[in-house]
Design a protein that fits this description.
It is a single chain. The protein is an alpha/beta fold and 500 residues long. The protein folds into three domains: 57 residues, no CATH class; 254 residues, P-loop containing nucleotide triphosphate hydrolases (Rossmann fold, 3-Layer(aba) Sandwich), CATH 3.40.50; 86 residues, Orthogonal Bundle (Arc Repressor Mutant, subunit A). Helices cover 33% and strands 21% of the residues. The protein has 13 helices and 22 strands. Strands 12-11-15-16-10-17-18-19-20 form a nine-stranded mixed beta sheet, sandwiched between helices. The chain has a three-stranded antiparallel beta sheet with strand order 4-3-5. Strands 1-2 form a two-stranded antiparallel sheet. The radius of gyration is 31 Å and the shape is globular. The N terminus is likely disordered.
Amino acid sequence: MYMQSSRDSRAFSFDFVDTFPIGYERDPELNPIVLDPTAARAQFEADIADTGEHRFTRRADAPVFVPPEPRPLSAKERRRLDRLRADARAAEEEAFYRADVTAAYEAAGLTSPYDNAAPQQPEQAPSHQADAVAPDEGLPVFSAASLAGRPLPPREWAVPDLIPFDTVTMLSGDGGVGKSLLAAQLAVAVASDAEWLGLKPACGPVVFVSAEDDSDELHRRFAAIAESEGIDLASVHDLHIVPLAGRDAVMGATEGRNSAVKETAVWRSLVRLVERVKPYLVIVDTLADVFAGNEISRTEARQFIGQLRGLAIEQALAVLLLAHPSLSGMASGTGTSGSTAWSNSVRSRLYLETVKDDDGAEGDPDLRMLTTKKANYGARGGEIKMRWTEGRFVGEGEPVRFAFGKAADRYVTVDEAFLTRLSAYLASGRDVSPSPNAKNYAPEILADGARPGKGRAASKSRAASVEEMRKAMERAFEASTICVDVQGPPSRQTKTIVIR
């Protein structure tokens, strides 16, 4: 960076001090005096200290300094740079806020609450870098000891605790339940920096591959989402839609009897698009349209998921793969389909279904439940209830999340409601039972709208709340927060729940 003199147009560059010869002029009419870098820097600092000026100029015989071309940032580096910029903006806003608060307190003759705040310590650089061990026949190998002292890489999420970066998440649901619409809402939210079902996803470009809906239907769907969410569709430049309905959409297929899954021309075109757009999220709708192998083959299922995950890792993005469950998967509530390898190969699996009562009948046709069926990087059991209205889904109430770590602090969970109501009920001198056949069955007594003593007769109208309380009770047992107290002789024992 050049420093301009206030009296003349001569310039001085610190880059030249350590790299190129420096000329120093005591008098503009005299020839420059050549100084070595150490003497030049000392003279420069002395001149600035005395007069606030300098008379340095690059010698005519010094080579011209040409800064090297910066290498292009990887997708992960761009994502982290965006996060650092957002953190910097937040820190600047916080600084202004603190200054305003401090001024107000001082004007009132009070001490600012920020005066005694402990200064934030800068992050310490690692003492050493991890040295990779020489590869063995092309295998990337490193020693666990080389990780010691290095900061842990943060877990990055496209959607907090639901859809992680650098891997594949599967969203399954029966045909017509609304998974394509839900995925389209997520695409709009990520591309326009908006919320999705009360959650705040990462903000960045999106590639949405649709092999189920044509361009006209996609137009209607995205227009309805944008209008309902108050988003100007003309501003959603970062959502790139690939309509493949009625076209060849196969991305992975087997040849002959060989079970090896081969990449197709459609897949290679998608890779080129991803390399150009550099998206944060790629949504593929649906598995049945893009995979032409044997869905019940464990080998082929793992290969195709590996193909998608390779793209996620190489391009530092998240892949959301939509799929249909089998009849047995819907009947069991697991949402699985074909080989178990589909569920085992993805790192996260979500299931969208209608809300049913205790008898298995669908109650409100507009209600849906999104459940976390698998979460390798978080905790299973999270639920988000939503309602279809005005062309999109809207979350009902707070998301029910059971993630570990700091994420748990962001949500009001059913677990807390269960323990709070249980404590108040026991404090009134009444007992609850863990047995579903008991009149004082805990989930029914503690559910929303419950009337103590009415037992199962009052449960059908509030089946969802009873089910939520039942799951909360099971988690409390597993965590040893509550236990069963057995009283009475063996022939007439009673079991009640007590808080540890």
